[in-house]
Amino acid sequence: DAGVTQSPTHLIKTRGQQVTLRCSPKSGHDTVSWYQQALGQGPQFIFQYYEEEERQRGNFPDRFSGHQFPNYSSELNVNALLLGDSALYLCASSGSGRTDTQYFGPGTRLTVL
Amino acid sequence: EDKVVQSPLSLVVHEGDTVTLNCSYEVTNFRSLLWYKQEKKAPTFLFMLTSSGIEKKSGRLSSILDKKELFSILNITATQTGDSAVYLCAVRATGTASKLTFGTGTRLQVTL
User: Fold this and answer.
1) Within its chain, how far is the Cα of A31 from the centroid?
2) pLDDT tens by residue, A16-48
3) Partners of residue A48 in chain B, C-beta under 8 Å
């Protein structure tokens, strides 16, 4: 049973560029959440997707957008990259049940130069 | 706004020691508190606690929640070098979404 997978593993971009990160949820999960983890900090919630719609959003600007596909996989897009966007981006999947736990993927390390 | 504070920020112990990690929280409409272990990248799930006073246990790790005083502790007995990691505490509120609010974590280093 495959866990949560993310691609790419690492990414280097320059300021102003755009980036797309991808996530495939754990088998049987239909909800995907994205988190940003800066160095030395805990993960910060970006947004959550369920039934191909954004269900909840954290305090992130509109430069951060996402999408969920019918197979439950998801993309995170960041436009007009800033140096401060450098971080580990984590995807977590869960079922839609009220007690379902979120399971995390290995993350994508984004460096903005 | 939901808030999670973990202490200590870091600690170094010798193999075989017992450690206690602390997590206090403020959340509107609390649903659950979760502990994760993060060694390199992916946080791995340890425990989810929803009820006060009920200890969750897995091997040398255990955790308990106090909903009245709004805190949780994670205990690790007979520590091993493989326990070296960042331990993250997160809370989840009620509602249709399942956003987790994390603390900054406790970095544990176990030395020989």
Assistant:
1) 12
2) 999 999 999 999 899 999 999 999 999 999 999
3) 97-99
